[in-house]
């Protein structure tokens, strides 16, 4: 039994990845905070004291109650209530869920687009490369947020308010995914250019494998670590973009709020002194984005991939 | 150099062409000008006649050429809401946005250069670490949230009574964290000075400047961390180079080396990146202007979306596209001029 092969778990525990994680306090803290937030968001229906989507549970008499610890607070609403009388804690839990869903969804979409176009551009080279990278350059020079705002505006104008509200989650995933694919495509292309010159690719060619097989089965696995790093940071960017779009009224409707639309709906009441409706979701958003960014920084240091710079 | 020039300019024209096609496709797909022009009482045959007369039944390409021809002559149609030429509406809103961008750029330049240089010269000092930490957090804070926090602190004001007021230090801490508020957080104020054309400036009156403070600080806050990190990284790289070591060996003073020799070469890439970033700031002006109800281009664009004012949306896209393309091309050309080692043929790998 002692000669049995090393299990995956043991290999993971021996790895440099685990070793450097254990020694980095910032990484551990960020990971724990992120884990707690993701779990809280996933289990929001179980954890939340109220269901913010259920109109029957909302009482307008409870509107704009402050968080516990301030004058006039009701212990039933630990973080206070918003202008419609919804429990802010529950709304934030559900809102984090929506924000995370859009963040992950948008990154999956942009990774799919970015990997495909990056592989094609890097491996095929020539005209394909020139055209794809020109499009990426132009799109990036307009800044991803600008592209997302314009696409969102056009979608909203063509679908109308009501229709847009119903399919807003998918729309936002699509808009942010399409707006940000060049980031990943550039990274993938840079790694593919480096990998393509290596012997194993020549070997695969000599063995007569087809181009798609070489691209996806041989080169792609070797470019995964930079993709992993940039995808982490991109989740944070996608969450910020979603919040910005929702804040502009081009994102999630107030009936099904994300963190961004919560901030927006609370902003209308900040002048009347109800700062908690906008600032508490804002704090949650900043913490969420910050821990993802810190994890991304740490991942980049550990994996030290050939990231595209510039 | 000539080849480089021609290549960049033709590329800029191509991008502008693509933008105009997209803008026209939006206009073609979304707006029905007839609905805005005639009432309900007009019969189907009459509508068809007007359509024919206006050329709305022409093929896409013919309509596009007409659109592009008008656009080149500065005619982008009339705004439905303002009932005047869309470009005129944009010209009225442009100065407000420009003043916002100028104010924010000044804040960025005067803060990022000293902080970035300091963090590069003394990377281990606690103040450098503090600045780098703050800029990491700063990147994670969306611009509209900074704006909201600024409004709460400096416009509405915060009264703090966390500490025991009966002790001297408690009262001092309470006073320290309590903010007055009072800074305007809405619009540009009434006291504007007419400069020329459509330019009503808020730069010359105390009221106008007071209105500029919060929006400019918010807009600057999003770019400042980027610039500090960029200047620090570039400066640290330059400080490693041979000519700096030679200058040190020659016995030049640290101040002369850092600020005369090193800073010069640090700023070259910073200026080019900065040029592109100022274009990107246009996107952030939309957010900043929404929070502060700043009557600039960004707010106008958002209002145009809610009002489905298609010609104004299209005109905004064309103008902003032009601004982006011109800044990017100029930055490329200037970089080509100052740094002749840049590949003249462009990006052929």
UniProtKB/TrEMBL annotation, chain A:
The keyword Chloroplast does not apply. One of its GO terms (biological process) is transmembrane transport. Keywords: Cell membrane, Membrane, Transmembrane, Transmembrane helix, Transport. The chain crosses the membrane at residues 26-48, 98-123, 135-155, 161-179, 227-253, 273-296. CDD domains: TM_PBP2. InterPro entries: BP-dependent_transpt_permease (IPR050366), MetI-like (IPR000515), MetI-like_sf (IPR035906), OppC_N (IPR025966). Its main location: membrane. It is a multi-pass membrane protein. Pfam families: BPD_transp_1 (PF00528), OppC_N (PF12911). The keyword RNA-binding does not apply. It comes from the Bacteria. One of its GO terms (cellular component) is plasma membrane. Residues 96-296 form the ABC transmembrane type-1 domain. Belongs to the binding-protein-dependent transport system permease family. This is ABC transporter permease.
TrEMBL record, chain B:
InterPro entries: BPD_transp_1_N (IPR045621), MetI-like (IPR000515), MetI-like_sf (IPR035906). Keywords: Cell membrane, Membrane, Transmembrane, Transmembrane helix, Transport. Its main location: membrane. It is a multi-pass membrane protein. GO terms for biological process: transmembrane transport. Pfam families: BPD_transp_1, BPD_transp_1_N. It is found in: Cell membrane. The chain crosses the membrane at residues 12-30, 100-121, 130-154, 209-231, 266-287, 313-338. The keyword Transmembrane helix applies. It comes from the Bacteria. One of its GO terms (cellular component) is plasma membrane. PANTHER family: ABC TRANSPORTER PERMEASE PROTEIN, DIPEPTIDE TRANSPORT SYSTEM PERMEASE PROTEIN DPPB-RELATED. Belongs to the binding-protein-dependent transport system permease family. This is ABC transporter, permease protein 1 (Cluster 5, nickel/peptides/opines). It comes from Marinobacter nauticus (Marinobacter hydrocarbonoclasticus). The lineage of its organism: Bacteria, Pseudomonadati, Pseudomonadota, Gammaproteobacteria, Pseudomonadales.
